[in-house]
Design goal:
Layout (H helix, E strand, L loop, with lengths): L14 H4 L12 H4 L4 H7 L6 E4 L6 H12 L2 E6 L5 H13 L5 E6 L6 H5 L2 H6 L3 E6 L3 H4 L2 H4 L3 E4 L5 H15 L4 E2 L1 H11 L3 H9 L7 E2 L1 H8 L11 H15 L3 H13 L4 H16 L5 H16 L5 H13 L5 H16 L14 H5 L43 H24 L1
Parallel strand pairs: 1-4, 1-5, 2-3, 3-4, 6-7
Length: about 425
């Protein structure tokens, strides 16, 4: 059998272009904007176009949506690429808009975050005068990448990554167009959907590249044809949770090399870096805690850095955080204390606040004894009110000191020394009261 496809394309045009929606109703996965009561649906129905920033991941239809909005509002359409364009393109857009008055123009700026502040500012007077409606598209957080003057004049609409159900519909439509003689198994469709990971364009490019020589495609045949483009990674499936578990356990086990390996595996397989960043923050709080409080700050900084840079530049910040978390001293003392307190509160119920800890903003409250006998710690020796009680009546007799038990690792060893000293002061105070 020839290696060439038994089902050749009737068109050399890329599948992603042939599958581009021709109507707003054909757009998948953005019902929160285009469905009943959605912001863009209401704008179209009221015939009130407005400048906007379309923020979302790749392959969710930002460019297509802009084109169809121009049609819906009856506007001329002009596009600028901020990657390749500059001031001349902005001037050309202004001239184009003047030529098409009074009908109006929608100027679409792809990757608007790539324009510098001066270039973004160049749009402002023309937006304010109503010469054109600006629609910018970006994969980056507009709060950081679009200047405040432009943001104040444009609504931000968030486009969502395509969920598996939307991608499945898209895949089934695509096979009817690209390979109408081919039957695909459920598992095969799922593999394509998992590999696309929310990106409709990627899904269509994967299907376009299949060039099947069989009338039936299952998961194994698709995986074989896609080769390096498919990893053993199932977003939201068992492989996903197995790998994030392996990453977490490698960090907890203080093995930086294994931690970096699982991070690389997940990123290479298409895991959402934002999800990984959130898990790193959790690891810093759960497995390191006060043994090294810097770990939490570093994990948060890595998450913010990735939001600013994206992949691949931002991936290095995640690798930095993973390595630091792996080599940092470990403690789950805070985690255990918090779980213990939560369980205690659920079982115990609501005990009253002691009178000496209550605030007394009115004379009545003061007369009731609120705040009376409260000892201001800053006025006490060592800045500590030795022997003072801060719990509801009756709880002091319970063994609650083991909620938070610092380890002997990292900063917690010093915390333990501090708590031991404070308990010694409590004991000295109690002895003095008995004399």
């Amino acid at each position: 059998m020839s290696n060439s496809s038994l089902f050749p394309h009737e068109s050399q045009e890329p599948l992603a272009e042939r599958m581009r929606p021709r109507t707003l109703a054909a757009i998948l996965g953005q019902d929160h904007l285009l469905g009943e009561g959605g912001a863009l649906r209401l704008a179209i129905e009221s015939r009130r176009p407005h400048s906007m920033i379309l923020w979302g991941p790749p392959g969710v239809g930002k460019t297509t949506l802009a084109r169809l909005l121009a049609d819906a509002f009856g506007l001329e359409f002009m596009t600028i690429s901020a990657v390749l364009g500059g001031v001349k393109d902005i001037r050309d857009a202004v001239a184009f808009a003047h030529q098409h008055q009074p009908r109006g123009t929608l100027v679409f700026v792809d990757e608007v975050h790539r324009f510098n502040k001066a270039q973004q500012d160049a749009f402002l007077p023309h937006m304010e005068s109503g010469l054109f409606t600006l629609v910018g598209a970006t994969t980056e957080n507009p709060s950081f990448e679009v200047n405040s003057a432009l943001l104040s004049r444009a609504a931000v609409h968030v486009l969502r990554r395509l969920d598996p159900s939307a991608l499945q519909i898209l895949a089934e439509r695509a096979f009817q167009v690209a390979w109408p003689g081919v039957t695909v198994t459920e598992e095969g469709i799922r593999l394509l959907v998992d590999t696309a990971d929310g990106d409709g364009r990627r899904l269509l490019n994967l299907i376009d590249a299949l060039a099947p020589t069989e009338t039936t495609l299952d998961r194994d045949r698709i995986a074989g044809r896609l080769g390096e483009r498919v990893r053993q990674f199932d977003q939201g499936g068992d492989a996903f949770y197995d790998q994030i578990s392996a990453l977490h356990k490698s960090v907890r086990g203080s093995n930086p090399n294994a931690s970096l390996y699982w991070l690389a595996r997940m990123l290479d397989g298409g895991a959402d870096p934002r999800y990984i960043a959130r898990r790193l923050v959790r690891m810093a709080a759960e497995d390191i805690g006060l043994a090294d409080p810097r770990a939490l700050r570093l994990a948060l900084d890595a998450a913010q850095t990735w939001e600013r840079l994206g992949s691949p530049e931002g991936d290095l910040a995640l690798a930095m955080a993973v390595t630091y978390l792996a080599v940092a001293p470990k403690s789950n003392a805070i985690y255990k204390a918090w779980k213990g307190v939560q369980a205690f509160v659920r079982e115990r119920g609501s005990d009253p606040v002691p009178d000496h800890l209550r605030n007394a903003p009115t004379r009545l409250m003061s007369n009731l004894g609120y705040g009376r006998a409260y000892r201001y710690a800053h006025d006490e020796p060592h800045g500590y009110a030795a022997g003072e009680s801060y719990l509801p009546p009756g709880l002091n007799d319970l063994d609650i000191r083991d909620w938070y038990e610092p380890t002997d690792r990292g900063l917690e060893s010093r915390i333990q020394e501090k708590l031991d000293r404070l308990r010694q002061l409590d004991q000295e105070y109690e002895r003095s009261q008995r004399k």
